[in-house]
Fold this sequence. Notes:
three-stranded antiparallel sheet; two-stranded antiparallel sheet; 6 helices; 53% helix
Amino acid sequence: MYYTASGNTKNSWDCELKPTYQGNCIKSSSNTKFLGLTIDDALSWKTHRDQMMSKWNTACFVIRTIQAIMSLETLRMVYFAYIHSIISYGIILGGNQPFSDKIFKIQKKAIRIITSSRPRDSCRELFKNLEILPLYSKYIYIYIYTQYKYML
């Protein structure tokens, strides 16, 4: 693989790189999906988050729909299957991004639905009672665990 730089770079850092492979120019893309994670050309997770938001909202709808007929333990299992698993996958890469607050709001929405709480109720005790780590705590836990694992 070779990179060809073009443009005036004498007084500027702005240059266009054109990667080639076996003589063929590789086209640039605004985003790519790798192992289920969508990353854009600015290494932002916004595109991935936007794609996941519809899945999380659908999961909240499913939980709300079955909430009246299922036990708390079953609702908790549905939460772990449909919301927590998606949040946890790739959290080490994008868990501290500026848009994480939107993901945390979806997580709190699901917790409130599971426990039949009002929209303005605090979720701190709800997370403790359900034994679910909030997004930021989950990120810190995974980060520390990963660092510890590689130190051994």
